[in-house]
Amino acid sequence: MKGHVYFIDPLEKLNIRKDSTLMLALTGLKMGLESYVIFSSDLYFSNQNQESLRVYTFAGDFSKEGYYLESFVLGQSKQISFSQVAYLHMRIDPPFDSRYLRFLWVLQELKKKGLVVLNDSQGILLHNEKLAAYSHPLSHASFVGGAGQAALDFLKNLKQQGYSDFILKPLDLYQGMGVQKFSWNDDLKKLLEDKEHEFGGMLVLQPYIKAVESGELRSIYFDGEHLGSIIKVPPSGSYLANIAQGATYAAIEPSTAVAGICKSIATELQKDGVRLIAYDILDEKISEVNVTCPGLLVEVSKACKRDLAQEILQRI
């Protein structure tokens, strides 16, 4: 039987109890699938007869309630040939920085040696998680660029539409990192210039959507099909609907209109090997198309009372 290899961040960086990748890997192991993990130190390309990967066995258990992990322990390392690998799952967390880009380049070369990568490294290269959302009609007014006059003009236009508060965030971080709310009365020029320097490049500007205080949806799709959704509600006084920062969650069904555009995007990205997608949806509009390391499998599974990790592996 060919195995599933999960390319992951160091275990000490992960929240083992609720990590989506570890849930996938451990679920596969308990389904009887040959399963391994691999770390960045063991991912390489060589033009000298490279035919194998050094991977690690592992063991673990789920909590009694299911879905959340109780333990995850590394075992021994071993060499397996490329021909023994069914899929190499690209599960490194953003930021999508130069380090991340180097991993994708190496994976692109290893594909030529027979590895099948999921989500496909080329698909991840082609589809920025924020721009993939903003380029569709069912999205919020968005600006992606530098701290120049065009950014100020964009904010001025939003003010004329009745917005007084705005959101600024980086193009390539995750879990709400770098997100900042500001108003028209702030020193906009200085704020934008400072943030452009801090982020090392382009900014994302959007109107502040007050509906976020009532919750943001996370919808998980695989091969163009909806698997499950939750609504994430920020803690009182916050505008960050992020579970890692205290948001609560519950199962929900997205509207027909939103589900339709999500399916349309998923079908299009599937052509580039992007099979697993986690959408963020705010006020009936798509705000993010997560393709690098789609998460919240544990939370969506628990809320929907279905093991989405098992469903994904069965579909694969």
A few lines on this structure:
This protein has helices spanning 20-30, 98-112, 121-126, 131-134, 149-160, 188-199, 256-270, 297-304, 308-315, and strands spanning 3-8, 35-38, 52-62, 69-81, 85-91, 117-118, 143-145, 165-170, 180-183, 203-207, 216-222, 225-233, 248-251, 276-282, 285-290. With 316 residues, the chain is of the alpha+beta class. It is globular and about 60 Å long.
What does this structure look like?
The chain is of the alpha+beta class and 316 residues long. It folds into 3 domains: 3-118, 3-Layer(aba) Sandwich (Rossmann fold); 143-208, Dna Ligase, domain 1, CATH 3.30.1490.20; 211-315, D-amino Acid Aminotransferase, Chain A, domain 1, CATH 3.30.470.20. Helices cover 29% and strands 30% of the residues. It has 9 helices and 15 strands. Helix 1 (20-30) packs across helix 9 (308-315).
Write the layout of secondary structure elements.
Blueprint: E1 3-8, H1 20-30, E2 35-38, E3 52-62, E4 69-81, E5 85-91, H2 98-112, E6 117-118, H3 121-126, H4 131-134, E7 143-145, H5 149-160, E8 165-170, E9 180-183, H6 188-199, E10 203-207, E11 216-222, E12 225-233, E13 248-251, H7 256-270, E14 276-282, E15 285-290, H8 297-304, H9 308-315
Parallel strand pairs: 1-2, 1-5, 5-6
Antiparallel strand pairs: 3-4, 7-10, 8-9, 8-10, 11-12, 11-14, 12-13, 14-15
Helix pairs in contact: 1-9
Q: How much helix is in the residues? A: 25-40%
The first-level CATH class of the largest domain is given as: Alpha Beta
| Approximate strand percentage | 25-35%
- Report the total helices: 9
Using the CA coordinates, give the radius of gyration: 20 Å
SS-based class: alpha+beta
Measured between the Cα atoms of the first and last residue, the distance is: 14 Å
* CATH fold group of the largest domain: Rossmann fold
Strand order of the largest sheet: 13-12-11-14-15
Q: What sequence of helices (H) and strands (E) makes up the elements?
A: EHEEEEHEHHEHEEHEEEEHEEHH
| CATH 2nd-level architecture of the largest domain | 3-Layer(aba) Sandwich
Low-confidence stretches: none
Number of strands: 15
What is the overall pLDDT average? 95
